[in-house]
Amino acid sequence: MRSLTKHLVLATAIAAFFAGCGFACAAEETAAALTAEAAQILDVFPAADGAHNAAAEKLHRALALDSGYAKAYVQVGRLQIAGGPEFGRQFAGVSAESASRAIMKALELDPADGQAWVLQAHLLIDMHQPADAKYALLKAEQLGADSAWLALNWAEVYEDQGNIEAAMEKYRSVEIGRAHV
After folding, report:
1. Is 112 helix (H, G, I), strand (E, B) or coil?
2. Three-state DSSP class for residue 103
3. Is 174's pLDDT higher than 70?
4. Most buried one in 23, 65, 80, 108, CB count within 10 A?
C-alpha cells in the first residue's frame, strides 16, 4: 500500500508539474513568436486548407498582446494579399482594412523594416505606380531586405520600363526556397 501511495503522490506531482508548465508556456506567448509562426504558415505555397485562418488567428493574438508590433502588420499585409478581401475585413478592428493599410501601419511603426518596403512595392506595382514602387524597392535594399519578392518586384519594374534584359536577370536570380515575402 505504501508503494501505491508513493506512486500516486509521484504521479500527482508530475501531473501538476506538466500542467504548470503548460500554463507557463501559454503565458510566455509573445507577439514576436506568434508573428513568426504566422509567417511560417504563410511561407507555404500552395496554402493548406485552413492555413489562412490559422495565420489570422495567430496574428490576432499577436496584435492583442502588442498592437504596436510592426512585424505583425507586415504579416497581416501578406495574409491579405494571399487570402484576399475576406482577411482584410477580419483585421478592420486594428485599422488594417486592406493590405495597403496594414503595410502603411507597419511602416509607421517601424520605417526600417525592409520587408515592409518590399510588400509596399508589391502593392504599388499592382496599383500601376512603378516610380513609387522603385522608390520602395530601393528603400528595401538600403535596409537590407533580401527575399525572392524583392527580385520579382524589381523584375516587374524593369518590365514596365521596357528593360526586358534586366527583368530576365532578376527573374533568373530567384532561387526555389529563397526567403519569404
Report:
1. coil
2. helix
3. yes
4. 80
DSSP per-residue letters across 10-29? HHHHHHHHHHHHHHHHHHT-
Cα distance between residue 52 and residue 169, in whole Å: 32
Selection from 144, 138, 142 nearest residue 153 by Cα? 138
- Map residue 2 onto helix, strand or coil: helix
Q: Is the separation of the CB atoms in 77 and 119 below 8 Å?
A: yes
Residue 162 backbone phi and psi in degrees, to 5: 85, 10
C-beta separation of 57 from 51 below 8 A: no
Which of the residue ranges 9-18, 19-28, 74-83, 108-117 has the most confident prediction, judged by mean pLDDT? 108-117
Q: In 27-47, which positions are buried (b, 16+ CB within 10 angstroms) versus exposed (e)?
A: eeeebeebbebbbebbeeeee
Q: What is the pTM of this model?
A: 0.66
Positive or negative, the Cα torsion across 158, 159, 165, 169?
positive
Sign of CA dihedral 37, 61, 143, 173: positive
Cβ–Cβ under 8 Å, residues 51 and 88: no
